[in-house]
Design goal:
The chain is mostly helical and 303 residues long. It folds into 2 domains: 3-88, DNA polymerase, domain 1, CATH 1.10.150.130; 115-297, hpI Integrase, Chain A, CATH 1.10.443.10. 56% of the residues lie in helices and 4% in strands. It has 14 helices and 3 strands. The chain has helices at residues 3-18, 22-41, 52-64, 69-88, 115-121, 129-144, 148-153, 183-195, 197-201, 221-234, 249-260, 265-272, 277-280, 282-298; strands at 159-160, 166-170, 176-180. It is elongated. The two termini are 53 Å apart. The relative contact order is 0.09.
Amino acid sequence: MTVRRVIQAYLDHLTVERGLSRNTLMSYRRDLDRYAQALAEDGIDDLAAVSAAQVSGHLAALRADGLASATAARAISAVRGLHRFATREGLVAVDVAAAVRPPAPPKRLPKALDVDQVTRLLAVAEDSPLGLRDKALLEFLYGTGARISEAVGAAIDDLELGDDPAAILHGKGGRTRLVPVGGYAKAALGAYLVRGRPALAAKGKGTPAIFLNARGGRLSRQSAWTILHRAASSAGLPVEGPHAVSPHTLRHSYATHLLDGGADVRVVQELLGHASVTTTQVYTLVTVDRLREVYATAHPRAR
């Protein structure tokens, strides 16, 4: 059966059996028309004559044409669906597209708050032991770039608040690292350790953890997330949807602001505890976007 006839049969199937929307069907038709045209240019008019290499070549051509990963993924999904349908209906003997995988979606850039948003997030009321704890926790997360698990896992002995304040963080894979503690975090931690933690510790059975819950035990990751969620809500920051403030938001912001300020990516790698600088380099993409914004608004010949 000709490629065009199989495509029409497949689209009819999607319309009747699958009930896809008109817009989705139009997208599939465009994707499959492009595929049919590519096969025709190779002199192929029979779907049974298509090889796996030609399907892979079509995907490569889509990417070479500059299609976004999501668009190319949808196009190759339509092609794979066509071949799967043809095989199931007995129109071809072998599904040559079965082993062809759509391109992996690009890594999402980390969400980072701007400095004003961070300031609002960290403006926690400090008139109680729990308020002092919450303030210290959020300042610690932003001031050290710690993961939530590293923050709640930190012990008093991991903290040095002298002339060169620093903290030992216990990261993934048993790796530990020493990170500086900024002035704001030092002040918030000092206030909590003197005026907040003793009152909480008196209710528990004794734990070396820095951050304690209302019963005097070690603060859990879920409770730390709740503290962040509450602070974000009070600051008017999103707590739901794709741009919601998450447990990693302050860590992302820490890295982005360091790079914006001129820090070397390998220094940031060490501070974040990344095993590979490749992991850290995703943050450099955020700063490039920021540079573009500044250029577009500030340069007289930018537009």
